[in-house]
Amino acid sequence: MPKNLKNFLLNIICISNISVATASAQMLFVPFENESSYSGAWNLSTEIPDYIAAYFREFHSIDVLSSTVFNSLAAEISENESDYDDLEFISNIAEKYGIKFVVMGSIKTFDIIRFTAGEPILAGYESFSCEIDCQIKIYNLVSNSMEYFNDINSKIANRGLGLTLFGKPTEEKIQFYSLNTIRFGGEEFSKTIVGETMFQFCENLSADIKSNSKEILKKDTHKSLKQKITDHKLDSIAIKSEVLKGKILTYDNSTGEAFINLGDEDALKQGEELFIYAKSDSLFDPVSNRFLGISEKRISTIEIIEVRGGKLSLGVVTENRQLVTIGMEIRKIVLKKQN
Prior knowledge:
Blueprint: H1 3-17, E1 18-20, E2 27-29, E3 33-34, H2 44-60, E4 64-65, H3 67-77, H4 87-96, E5 101-119, E6 123-140, E7 145-157, E8 162-165, H5 171-178, H6 193-212, E9 229-231, E10 241-251, E11 257-260, E12 273-284, E13 291-309, E14 312-317, E15 329-335
Parallel strand pairs: 2-4, 2-5, 3-5
Antiparallel strand pairs: 1-9, 5-6, 6-7, 6-8, 10-11, 10-15, 11-14, 12-13, 12-15, 13-14
Helix pairs in contact: 1-3, 2-6
């Protein structure tokens, strides 16, 4: 490609993805190194970090810049793509926008597997699974140190084996063969097992970051005087969530074991953790003194050890067991699947 044409196209990409905004970014994502065996249509090097960036913006109110925008900014400075992996080069771009953290990573595993058994023409069984594994590094440019480093994994297999009759394809099979035509991070993407696995990956990453650093996911309220931009690339990623709610049906405070009214129908899985909430203070309107309701506070967590049915699971309360009672509400934020 002629150099002038390449520069022209890069400028178009840059203009379409960034513009002046009212708040500076505090976290910059750079393209991940793809070491997986995936060979499909998605560009995982930018799609995965861009999805994580959109998740952080949505659920943690973090001002972020995507790896797609980073590529645009980097191309304005250097045509040598090998520079884009250099931390000093990245830091020079980040400093311009008052960015505190830089997120880098390598994709170790990105597998989508279909298992079949039986005669396809008559009837058979099939199941699908997806696994994503990445090594994530987060640099603190203020302290010039590694703030976070860990391997994060997410794996989901659809619940049980789906029966296919007389060769009629299941919805999962149709999704499987149309994945390359679905936009990564779009609304259709969230309906697939890959979208569900990617969302769970972000939840696992968030939980691990919180347990290792108090600063990374803390919203920066400092008003930076650096140049400020916003990232339009992230607006195209549709991450819609809903709150899964249930109740504690039985509880043994000596062992911590509890049965809850959530199960297979709620896509609950062994090993998942949900939060337990208790009633707290009465709320009144400050003007009319009218009673508005009762607030709730999170007091504990419950880990699922066995899914017993469509609406029944056994779990173990992991903390503050003395505060938990029958009837308390349990919640978990899950990916919303559009109809």
